[in-house]
Amino acid sequence: MSEIIPAIIPKNFSDLAEKVSLVANFVKTVHVDINDGKFVKSKSWPHSSPNDFDFEKILKEEEGMPYWEKVEYEIHLMVSDPASEIDNWIRAGSKRVLVHYESFPSSREFKKFTEEFKEKYGMNGSSLFPELGVVLKTETPIEVLAVLEQSVKLIDSIQLMSIATIGFQGINIPFETSVIDRVSAVKNKYEGIPVSVDGSINMENAQKLIDAGADRLIIGGAIFQSEDITDTIEVFKSL
Questions:
Q1: pLDDT score for 202
Q2: Do the bridges between strand 29-35 and strand 3-8 make them parallel or antiparallel, or are there none, so unpaired?
Q3: pLDDT surpasses 60 at 127
Q4: The predicted structure's pLDDT at residue 150
Q5: Using alpha carbons only, what angle is made at residue 25 by residues 15 and 56, rounded to the nearest 5 degrees?
Q6: Band of residue 92 on the pLDDT scale cut at 50, 70, 90
Q7: Domain ranges of the chain
Q8: Segment 139-155, tens digit of pLDDT
Q9: What does the pLDDT average to over 38-57?
């Protein structure tokens, strides 16, 4: 059974809290897109507000992420410099941080980043250690992951984008069917590593992704724009 993870691109802290409140009783993990306006064209909280007061309170441990006692947070860093931000999100209590391979100037720099992360935060994603996942855009060949083959423990998960235009939600962005074969290829190549898919997932394509081996489905609009969020989540879970 694939895990269903609601995806949120928060406008601000209040928007994040409101959306998490709608799903906190029905899922164990929430996926939050952090957009810096550089790596992608859009900005999301906390980049949408310089020196965001709410985020500062979280970093000072004066406040927690919304419903932190009910859900775990998966942070998708769609930013140009993930190394400069990742510590803050670990401090905020993230269970899993996802970084784009394309954020790094070379495969060598990407591998160096993963090595430093694991050295600093631990070598497995248990309850005591945050997980590190790598994200690939639709146009990035899965062969780039070969840089990690000698040390597969450097990453805890692989996320494949299923839309070409990333950083937006609620607009009609086509689902890239090529991701279905990419899921199968990654699962065959890297056994034991969970594979997520993110972007324009709906009832029509979700089953195909599950059949291909996807372990996690990251779903935004199909959940939050539905008339009955609870029922929609349960239907996705039943696939």
A1: 96
A2: parallel
A3: no
A4: 66
A5: 40
A6: very high
A7: 3-238
A8: 999 999 988 876 667 89
A9: 94
Fold topology of 3-238: TIM Barrel (3.20.20)
9, 42 in Cβ contact below 8 A?
yes
pLDDT exceeds cutoff 70 at 171: no
Q: How far is CA 33 from CA 1, 166, 234, in A?
A: 24, 10, 23
> pLDDT value at position 132?
95
Q: Hey, what are 160's tokens? A: 């494949």
Token pair for 165: 């235009």
Contact 160, 179 (CB under 8 A): yes
- Which H, E and C letters describe the chain, residue by residue? CCEEEEEECCCCHHHHHHHHHHHCCCCCEEEEEEEECCCCCCECCCCCCCCCHHHHHHHCCCCCCCCCCCCEEEEEEECCCHHHCHHHHHHCCCCEEEEEHHHCCCHHHHHHHHHHHHHHHCCCCCCCCCEEEEEECCCCCHHHHHHHHHHHHHCCEEEEECCCCCCCCCCCCCCCCHHHHHHHHHHHHCCCCCEEEECCCCHHHHHHHHHHCCCEEEECHHHHCCCCHHHHHHHHHHC
Q: Does the pLDDT value for residue 58 go beyond 80?
A: yes
Mean pLDDT, residues 13-35 = 98
Beta bridge partners of 74: 31, 96
Predicted TM-score of the model (pTM)? 0.95
Contact 48, 41 (CB under 8 A): no
Query: Angle between the 203-212 and 229-238 helix axes, to the nearest 10 degrees?
Result: 30
